[in-house]
Sequence to fold (177 residues):
Amino acid sequence: MLEYLSVGIVLRPQGLKGEIKVKALTDDPKRFDTLQKLFLQNKGTPSLPVELQICSRRYDKGFVYLKLSGYETIESVEPLRNQELWISRDMVRKLPKFTYLIPDLINCRVETIDGEYLGKLSQVFETGANDVYVIRGGPRGEVLIPALKKVVTHVDIPNQLIRVDLTDMEGLLLDED
Fold:
């Protein structure tokens, strides 16, 4: 499992006093209300993230605007452009039952309840109604699976295994009769 999780990407400086415009990469952009610090990947030593202290935050038109300690000018925040903002795993909120972090699902082995290997989960599309899991690398090629409770019957993150029940999903697999 990843030690740090991405929660946003810096789009650009906002104004002249060091504020940044951030696109939230989380289901709840108001999540930033509970954060006091973020991390930035250190380009010189990637294993040592740089800690950023949040001084203030505001929201407008679906974006988060952050003021960071030590960043007082547009020139000081310009190098942050297009950089991802991270939180450590211990800062992750407790998730509701049957809810998982997408990075924890990626690369999980996916098989049917009958034990047929479908491939590995490579991507998750967030459609609004329900997520769609993209499974690749299996004998049936790319498979798209709706992330519904009646379909995704078992998720075991420590063992990187997802089991799916496709009995009521006629036509989902290409090689079906």
Q: What stands out?
A: The chain is about 5% helix and 45% strand. The mean pLDDT is 88. The first strand starts at residue 4 and ends at 14. The radius of gyration is 20 Å.
